[in-house]
Description:
The chain is α+β, with helices and mostly antiparallel strands.
Amino acid sequence: xxxxxxxxxxxxxxxxxxxxxxxxxxxxxxxxxxxxxxxxxxxxxxxxxxxxxxxxxxxxxxxxxxxxxxxxxxxxxxxxxxxxxxxxxxxxxxxxxxxxxxxxxxxxxxxxxxxxxxxxxxxxxxxxxxxxxxxxxxxxxxxxxxxxxxxxxxxxxxxxxxxxxxxxxxxxxxxxxxxxxxxxxxxxxxxxxxxxxxxxxxxxxxxxxxxxxxxxxxxxxxxxxxxxxxxxxxxxxxxxxxxxxxxxxxxxxxxxxxxxxxxxxxxxxxxxxxxxxxxxxxxxxxxxxxxxxxxxxxxxxxxxxxxxxxxxxxxxxxxxxxxxxxxxxxxxxxxxxxxxxxxxxxxxxxxxxxxxxxxxxxxxxxxxxxxxxxxxxxxxxxxxxxxxxxxxxxxxxxxxxxxxxxxxxxxxxxxxxxxxxxxxxxxxxxxxxxxxxxxxxxxxxxxxxxxxxxxxxxxxxxxxxxxxxxxxxxxx
Length: 476
């Protein structure tokens, strides 16, 4: 029997406010455990919440960027449950009247077609505390308790793990570009729950769904969904009955594991939050917020392709975050070489940032300095190979490339006479290589050029080296 996969995502993103949703405590990441707290976010008796207006603003901004309609009259609700990370025994969230409804995201599939993935709702709520499981027992850090979240619930429109990853990537880039969230998945700013089921191909009746909780990387999402698809199909083929449950992804074992049976809405006994007033959002405020939405990633991507004449793939990578897009655009304009700017940012610079777990906004060098490096290479002052060494020093020190080149004596040698002496020395020392080349082994040229570059410590102009090597070999 053939099966069809049905996937919907519930994405929790921390909003980039300076203070928590119902109190004045800082939302800053990190800090000593239980230091970013007060009676309100600790849920102490007698403490009263006060809704942070900026949270509502950011929620509306996210909704507008995701093509949602805004609920003009709404409220906050209590979601009742008992768990160590929820000190009040309820979470203040939204139930029947979410802030935003009926939006969508367009994603590009592998065959180039555009698919619309519906967004059912966006609601704002408070985050829970963080549980730390140790050999001595489970500890609770309440620093995260009360940090504002927007929960973005998609419709079950995705039909493969790759579509789900595409959707999450696009969602992340939109939220990041609008400034409503930093979306740092490794810090928990963006977390994803996935609902997945399989059904007989061609059927209009969904299968029994499983929820996979708290995945914080694109790789984890794809792996967990692929595993769950195999698990569910294997069970169905064996005649087993699937149950609706909540599972967690174990990245070490590469499998999902049952956490608990799936709860339903009535298990939470939702009711209106009596300590907070209703939300009354007028058209004027909505339009004010709409005007603050910047150029969105898909719009910027199309402009980069047209304006800078770079491949669409390059543009799609460069626009994943606003900081990367801004850095590229400034560098491209200053250097006059958009392809070189793209190559450096997508290649060596991204590699260095990944190795050092850092971000574009944390770079010690500026677009002006990167454009200076590109100009030094294009003018022949230094080689591309030397440039790769310079960029590492720029990353570590923030010094300008011109200063680094002067301090380390890295200026490229374009003196043909001096280079010719080295070429002849290497050829004299490697007669077998000359013979091999004349016998049709063209790869020998790369070997000889490599020896020359090593002898000159990478300073010889590669174009001149290649020209002289070809000329001298033919004479022998």
